[in-house]
Structures are given as C-alpha cells and as structure tokens.
Amino acid sequence: MAEIGLVDVSMRDGNQSLWGATGLRTSQMLEIAGQLDRVGFRAIDFTSSSHMAVAVRYFQDNPWERIRRMRAAMPRTPLQFITTGLRFIAWEQADPDFMRIVYRRLQANGIRRFILLDPMHDVQAVLQTARIIKEEGDATTMAALTYTLSDMHDDAFYARFAALLAASADIDLFYLKDPSGLMSPERARTLVPAVKAVIGGKRLEVHLHCTIGLGGLASLAAVEAGVDAVHVGIGPLGNGTSLPEAGRMIANLLELGHTVAVDHGALEAVSRYWNRLAVAENLPRGMPQEFDASFLRHQIAGGVMTTMLRQLAEVKLEGKLPEVIAETVRVRADLGYPIMVTPFPQMVCSQALFNVISGKRYSQVSDQVIRYVMGRFGRPTRPVASEVEAAILDRPRARELSAEPAVLGLQDMRRRFRADMPEEEFLLRAVMPGDQVDAMLKAGPASARYLPEAAPFHSLLRELAARPAARDIVVERPGFRLSLHAGPSLV
Q1: Taking a C-beta distance cutoff of 8 angstroms, is the pair 412, 404 a contact?
Q2: CA–CA distance, 361 with 384 (Å, rounded to integer)
Q3: How far is CA 488 from the centre of its chain?
Q4: What is the C-alpha separation between 289 and 211, in angstroms, rounded?
Q5: In the 8-state DSSP scheme, what is residue 245?
Q6: Measuring CA to CA, which residue among 127, 161, 131 is closest to residue 146?
Q7: Best CA proximity match to 239, nearest among 274, 281, 273, 190
Q8: Which residues make beta-bridge pairs with 3?
Q9: What pLDDT, in 10s, does the model give residues 277-316?
Q10: CA–CA separation, 262 vs 239, rounded Å?
C-alpha cells in the first residue's frame, strides 16, 4: 500500500470535457483558488494554449493575467500547462524561437509543470520541447504516453517510447493519458508495469477519462500496478466525459488501503462551489457513464464530442450525430489512424461533419487537413489512403498551401507588429485575430469576485444593456422588488 497523489483537472480538462471549454472565467476561478490551494493536490491541470485562446475569444479575459493571479492565489500548488510541443494556439507548428518566448513567458507568469504531448510519439520533438522549457526556466516536465487502440500501439510500443525519453535529464516524470477513455483495467495491469520497468526512478501518473465508464476502474487498477498519482475532477467536473470524480476516487483508494494526503474539508468546499456555479450558470454535471463499445472504434475524446454536439446543434442537425460518428471512423482510417488528441480529433471530426453535411466525401476540405496530408503535422502511424491523398492534394488550394513556408520565422512574425509591443501581446496577436486581442485589452483586468447566486442578476443586466430601448424595468418576487430607470440608455 502506498500514498497516492492526486492532480486536479477541473479547470482545464474537466471544463473542456463537460462545459465545452467555455464554462469558466478568470473571476470564477479566482473565487475558489484559496480553498483549492489548501486541498493538497500534487498539481492543478490549469490551462493550454487552446484554453488561453478561449479566454480571449469568449470572455475578453487576459490569459497571462489569469495565470499570474491564480499563481498568486495558489502559491503552494503547481499550475500545469499541457502542450503539443512547437504549437501555440494555431494548429500549425511554430518557429522554435517563437516557442522559446512562449515557454519563457508561461514560466515567468507562474506555470510550474508542463505536460509534453506529441500526438505522433516523436521522441525528438518531445526532447526538443523539454530542452527549450528547461533552458527558459525551472519547471517540471512530464512526458505523455498517449493511449490509443491499434495493432501498433501495444505495451512494447509505449515502453520503447518511454525508455528513449527516460534517458534524458530534461524529462522529469511520465503519465499515461487516455483522452478517449478506452483503457480497460486489464490493459492497465500490463501497460503500467511495462512502462515502469524502463523509466527507472521517475514517477508515473495516470490521466484516464470516464467516457465509457472505464476511467475509475482503470485508474484503480493502475494504482495497484504501481502508478504514483491519479488525475481527477471535482464534483460536477468529474465523471461523464471528464475524469474520475475526486471524492469517490479518494474513498476507493482508502478502501483499498492506500493513503491520500488531502484536506477533506477544503475539497468538500471546492465541490460545493462548483455545484453552486453549475446551477447558477445552467451547466451540466458529470454523471457516471455506461459502457459504450462504439467508442472503441471512433475514439472521440470527451471534449471533442461536446464540441461536435454543439456544432450540430448550431446548424440544427442534432439527429445527424450517429451518421457523423460513423463517418469519423472512416475518415480516421483514411488519414492513417492519427491518435485522437489535439489537433487531430478536431481535424477528423470536422472533416466527417463536412462529408455528412455536403453529402459528398472530401468535396470540402479544411486547410488543416490539407496540411496534415502534406506532412506538416508529422508522419501518420500509417500512410494516408492513396485515393484520399490524391483527392485532397489534387485541388488548387493544396497547390497554394504547398508554396507557403512550413514554419513562419520569428523575425517575419515580428515585422508584422510594432517594435515595442510587449512579448505577451505579441504572442497573442501573432496567432489570433487582432480584433479579439483589441477587445481583451479594452476590457481591462478581470473582476476579482464571482458569486454564483448573483449570476441571474448579472445575466439580467447584460440583457438590458443589449436592449437600449428598455428604459423602465421592474422585477418583483415575494419579499423583493427591483426598479431600474434609465436616462439616455439603460446599462
């Protein structure tokens, strides 16, 4: 029996899996930061470049300020950033010198732990990223072994990959990441020992989603096989397509004779807060999932499934979901079975959506899929189907993209902006629409307080501000009367 560490994923992966990555603002995170810091988590899975883009695009929250303020509010618990290497917000690879600035600014603002995830399991790509991070600060680096099902990705495959990385002093620890929730307890019992046998004294953690009901059981099996920590979500941000719920995981670990060094009172306070927020903002709670064998075929991760459902709802085609899922399986096979982790699920699922809506396969193809087929994202596990490759590359847009530089150089990027622009603003403007960054800067610092019970009132005020013709408003309920009268406009 051993002491098992916990990593909380609520604000990044839980939010992404269950709330479409758009459920949390900076003020909502800051409100609970103090209690969260007292729980005793090994780390907080806090953000990614995609989440930073969401902060700017949807909330006009400055993501650099978000990291700074959360770090100040949580001095004891490391904030964690997940990265696919030489990529920041944009799907395409970036200049290593550009990424050097990214990793320097992330560490300067308070990121203390990095997950290094290369979807192609490219050893040199992971080591290059780890080296840059270490040269730009002193953060901990954790290499991801991204789980998928194929005849290539057996225990020996992951052991070989881990052994090559473990030889580097720039890699501090490892974790098994299962974004689609496919790992069974039986597989955990063979895979964990295979990896531990080659990584020496470096720690191993597990990050297993609950999408088809396996995450909790597989996590416990991994603990029995020797992992050091389990990644969990708290309250409504656990279960469902997220990760095992923290309270239940702790109870099960204790029942099995392990120890878990957490402040149970602080954890309960955090869980109550997320529940209050979910009610106030009408956000779903993660629920235990039934086993669904179809996921073993399409391997769509929880966050991507949530996004796809939202996209279908926006075009009023919710009933097409089974057809899109079936097409996702076909597209993934066509493209050489990429591991379904960012950015590949977005590519595969978007292409499947295009194919279903248009009624003709590959009549519409995104630039990202064209670049993928060109090899701009690395080498697929298997070659792209020849007839699909020909259909994608034999079009004018493919010829246009083939003429562009594979990676835009840092100096070329800098020339697009004024010389005295702060690095953090430059990094956002280089990869995001300028009007979105303008709106973020205009909005100023995020509010320091968020009270879930006040959310309906704030929603009312936003609605009224959007209706300048509304001048006299009265809201009445038993024991309460609110009267608003506007002058030139109601705000």
Answers
A1: no
A2: 15
A3: 44
A4: 6
A5: B
A6: 161
A7: 274
A8: 259
A9: 999 999 999 999 999 888 887 887 666 777 778 888 888 8
A10: 20
